[in-house]
Amino acid sequence: MHELSIATSIVAIVGEQVLQHGGGRITGVTLRIGRLSCVHEDALRYSFDLVTEGTPLAGASLAVIEVPVRIWCAICKAEVELPGIQRFACPACGHLSGDIRAGRELDIESIQIEADPTASDQTASNTPEPTQPEPS
Amino acid sequence: MIEPRILEVRTKILKKNDELAREMRRGFESLGLLVVNMVSSPGTGKTAFLQETLLRLRARGIPVAAVVGDLETDNDARRLAESGAPVRQIMTHGLCHLEADMVQSHLAGWNLADLHYLFIENVGNLVCPTSWDLGESVRLALLSVTEGEDKPLKYPGLFNTADIAAITKIDLAAACEFDRDAACANIEAVRPGMRIIETSVKTGAGIDDWLDYLAEKRRAL
Fold first, then answer.
1. A37 and B191: CB-CB below 8 Å?
2. Would residue B68 count as lying in a domain?
3. β-pair partners for A106
4. Is B15's Cβ below 8 Å from some Cβ in A?
5. B190–A88: do the CB atoms touch at under 8 Å?
6. Which residue, B132, B150, B129, is CA-closest to B141?
7. Which helix (H) or strand (E) holds A51?
């Protein structure tokens, strides 16, 4: 269950990022997960709920954008999307290619927050919001 | 008034591990130390393969060391230490993969500049170790003839991150009705162009090719 380690990293990064940007209530996190990253979405959701408990991310929704694998086909001279991950061959001409252009992503794309604009105006020019607990 | 907003962050989830691993790799390579991360299922014969590798390199007078990851027990480290090489065990206590900081903390006190090769035997698992860079220069994926030819198709993510594949226990190929061509075609399908070595620590098949590969990679550092 390496998804638990991944969820723990997400909590740490999101906590840091939100603090850096003036705080606010975190309502959602969007991830980009490549099909080659070996992350099981259900296991990640389960881990996310588990590790966010008692943190500023508790109750936040998790959206996952699945990124298909794209390879460079030297024959077609084009970047092509693969329908699966078991054959790294150009769907058009069948040429095998190890030149992978997408599909390994394991990224946090964005964080949805609800902020009080008057409160963030005050904190933006000053120290980060002190009421925000440290991510665990 | 509460306003929802979206913070675009576009950050790698494992950036802390990635950054540490990159820094470790730079350090290893600047010392002329080739680090190999060995990944496979449990039971492929990683430890036997590594034991043979350590013995053969030491017999040539080449300084080597190894760290070995397991959920529990230091059995593998004790087995490997019989080769005479310095070996340390990383017990993960349930964690299914090694991370860069675990490797780094187990290297303390070793003079890495004196070593030519460092082998990291990862936890036996074909899924979880995929995304964790350990600072290695070479990732070796092992597959035994007893596991079936379609293993690479079942675990393409991990095979796709490897630099070289070793088929182990090739001496049992006939008994297992192992189809070499199918296995090689499957590895080629998920990692086009990857070098494949057929090996047996019982007969010594392919081990010289493996050692030549290591020497070639170390010269290229």
1. no
2. yes
3. A33
4. yes
5. yes
6. B129
7. helix A41-52
Q: Is residue B81 part of a domain?
A: yes
Domain assignment present for residue B4? The answer is: no
Range of the domain at B70: 15-219
Angle at A49 between CA A43 and CA A51, to 5 degrees: 95
Residues A13/A100, Cβ–Cβ less than 8 Å:
no
| Separation in Å, CA of A33 to nearest CA in chain B | 10
Residue B6 lies in a domain: no
DSSP letters for A3-39: HHHHHHHHHHHHHHHHHHTT--EEEEEEEEEETTS--
> Model pTM?
0.90
Average pLDDT over residues B129-155: 96
Give the CATH fold of the A3-68+103-116 domain. Answer: hypothetical protein PF0899 fold (3.30.2320)
- Distance between A38 CA and the closest CA of chain B, angstroms: 6
For residue range B199-213, list pLDDT tens digits in order.
999 999 999 999 999
User: What SS3 state is found at B120?
Assistant: strand
Look at strands A106-115 and B164-168 and give their pairing: unpaired
CA triplet B122, B92, A38: central angle to 5 degrees?
55
User: What does the alpha-carbon distance between residue B153 and residue B151 come to, in Å, rounded to a whole number?
Assistant: 5
User: Mind listing the pLDDT tens digit for each residue in B62-88?
Assistant: 999 999 999 888 999 999 999 999 999
- Rounded Cα–Cα distance for residues B196 and B188 (Å): 9
Q: How far is CA B177 from CA A66, B56, B102, B174, in A?
A: 38, 30, 39, 5
Residue B162 has pLDDT above 80, yes or no: yes
CATH classification at residue B142:
3.40.50.300
Name which of B5, B11, B156 is nearest A107 (Cβ-Cβ).
B11
Please tell me the distance from the alpha carbon of residue B203 to that of residue B154, in angstroms, as a whole number: 29
Partnered with residue B36 across adjacent β-strands are B119, B138
Domain spans of chain A, in order of start? 3-68+103-116
d(CA A89, CA A34) in angstroms, rounded, equals 17
